[in-house]
Amino acid sequence: MATSALNIQKLLALVLLATTTSAVNVPLALAPASEAPVIAAAHVSLSIEGDRWTSWSGTTSGNQFFYNLLDNIKQITGHAPNLRIGADSEDVAMYHSDVNFQQATFPNSTVITPYPEANSLVVGDSYYQTIRFMPPGTHVTWGVNLGANNLTAAYLQTRAIANTFNSPAVKNAGIVLDHIEIGNEPDFYPSRGYRKGNWTAADYVENWTAFANNVSVAAGITPASHTKFMACSFASIDAGLSPTRAFDAGLVNSTSGKLISTISQHMYSGAFCSGGDFLLQGLMDKYTIRSNLTTLVPDIRETRARGLQYVLGETNSYACHGAPGVSNTAGAALWQIDYSLYALQLGVSKLFFHQGIGYKYNMIQPAPLNWSSTTDAPLSPPQAPHIQPQYYAALVVAEAIGMSTTTRVAEVFVDSAVVTGYAFYEKEQLVRAVFVNLNGYFNASAPRGSVHLDLAFAGQGVQGPAAVSVKRLAIDYASDVAGLTWGGQTYETADGRVAGQLNMTTGPVSAGVDIWDSEAILLSFQ
Ligand SMILES: *[C@@H]1O[C@H](CO)[C@@H](O)[C@H](O)[C@H]1NC(C)=O
Ligand SMILES: *[C@@H]1O[C@H](CO)[C@@H](O)[C@H](O)[C@H]1NC(C)=O
Ligand SMILES: *[C@@H]1O[C@H](CO)[C@@H](O)[C@H](O)[C@H]1NC(C)=O
Ligand SMILES: *[C@@H]1O[C@H](CO)[C@@H](O)[C@H](O)[C@H]1NC(C)=O
Ligand SMILES: *[C@@H]1O[C@H](CO)[C@@H](O)[C@H](O)[C@H]1NC(C)=O
Ligand SMILES: *[C@@H]1O[C@H](CO)[C@@H](O)[C@H](O)[C@H]1NC(C)=O
Ligand SMILES: *[C@@H]1O[C@H](CO)[C@@H](O)[C@H](O)[C@H]1NC(C)=O
Ligand SMILES: *[C@@H]1O[C@H](CO)[C@@H](O)[C@H](O)[C@H]1NC(C)=O
Ligand SMILES: *[C@@H]1O[C@H](CO)[C@@H](O)[C@H](O)[C@H]1NC(C)=O
Ligand SMILES: *[C@@H]1O[C@H](CO)[C@@H](O)[C@H](O)[C@H]1NC(C)=O
Questions:
Q1: Ranges under pLDDT 70 in the chain
Q2: What is the pTM of this model?
Q3: Number of H helices and number of E strands within the chain?
């Protein structure tokens, strides 16, 4: 008996070693804790570099590929992702009534930055009016120029934006302007040559208020209007300006300051501006994600204490358009799922993932690429419009949210250094859960590990659901740049619509669920 038990133990140990499977108990509360936040349908939204906006939207007709990808999300949650348009380009942009769509000049491409941002941009009314091609009901934030310190320029842009959103084509489609943002990353203005080196929070507030006094009138922003201001948009929490410092300098004290509904901060996990070697596992790391995001907590508290929303108005993996082999991979999709949902737990009410034509960290490449976004090598023929792995992250989060506008999310305690989890509640009842295994699986040199999740319900006297269906974001290797499937289906199609047979498996909750290294799963309870 003793010997055979020992043998079985040895055998078990061998099996465990061979497949590196471990098991964890996962407590799932059947009802949400009181502090579990509501998740917005557009929690995962897009920030779009303004210099090539019409490559996203289309000019005389809409860009159907981009439309379809936004509409896919809308079909899942009822809302297309929100769009924030501008970024660095917003402080370069000038308005001119004679310009058809846009005129931009770009620096030469380099290996580090194959698609640099425009060094000049002039836009006309038709540039803004292409917003009418977005899915009906899309919510928009548009940036105007503060960097140039030219009130007339900001005024003319604002007037063109206001005319656009008051036009019948846009109004009838229910496309609404949530915010105007005055200036992008003003904490970086001295280094960008837009302001003198001793530019302080008080200077920012003075400038912002002077512009907002004008812009609010030009845009019809009042205490009663839907449109409000998104303010701050700071690049870094350590470049001298912060939401808290801006509040202390009186940002929300003025009449215009009271028209701010949302404070925006930007965040990246690092920067590829001068290149460098970044490891994918360094990005997809449970503790880095937590330590990066928790640095925002003091400003989130100050913001929410004033009754304002706090968003990451521009974010993604590594600044300056991403790092090759990291930002454009399946691993980055896993990072995005955990990053988005963990940020919500801290009080971030939306994340605008930054996108530009040919940027490495995009979810979507909506236009043909004439040269490589990772190596700068010419592509002949051009690479057709396509999605990148992070688009699947948006799909996973959208399906977890579902059609309810009051879905609440709580982080699930998973006693693992690599697996993270979130429980989703509708009408106070557990309906779904997302788990992400951030352990990188890079090649077949070793067997792929997995973690067995033993699901244990916690709740008051009620029996939990008996069955669970599992939908998998299947990834061959964390470094893959394509070929992912979501429930067996692909979105890597010419028109951006889903293809293939849906494949989900259903089993008893008591059997638990396995999650492979470098995989995300969506559980739906029945
Ligand atoms: C950009 O590239 C063109 C053509 O290769 C070259 O003539 C020009 O000098 C380059 N400009 C800069 C600023 O490097
Ligand atoms: C805003 O600025 C423009 C251009 O300088 C000016 O014509 C307009 O009167 C200003 N409006 C307000 C309300 O300050
Ligand atoms: C300010 O912007 C207006 C409108 O674009 C432009 O006509 C004017 O030249 C600009 N002023 C300066 C000093 O650049
Ligand atoms: C800011 O810098 C300018 C020159 O760069 C100088 O004239 C001014 O006195 C400085 N202001 C403060 C408050 O230091
Ligand atoms: C913005 O700030 C700069 C320097 O900080 C100042 O010279 C300029 O007058 C300000 N602009 C407005 C419209 O207040
Ligand atoms: C802004 O208003 C608050 C609340 O009334 C006040 O405590 C604070 O001193 C004001 N700040 C500035 C810079 O005026
Ligand atoms: C995020 O984490 C990375 C890796 O530890 C670190 O280099 C970076 O400074 C962090 N960023 C912030 C804003 O905490
Ligand atoms: C790619 O080439 C096409 C055809 O010449 C051109 O219309 C398009 O603007 C180019 N794309 C970029 C991003 O430069
Ligand atoms: C395979 O992946 C492991 C990490 O999981 C790495 O150490 C090793 O270098 C990789 N081998 C190859 C051939 O890429
Ligand atoms: C469906 O998914 C399961 C689990 O990932 C897999 O074992 C099975 O082969 C898939 N079936 C089909 C028809 O693809």
A1: 1-19, 460-462
A2: 0.95
A3: 13, 25
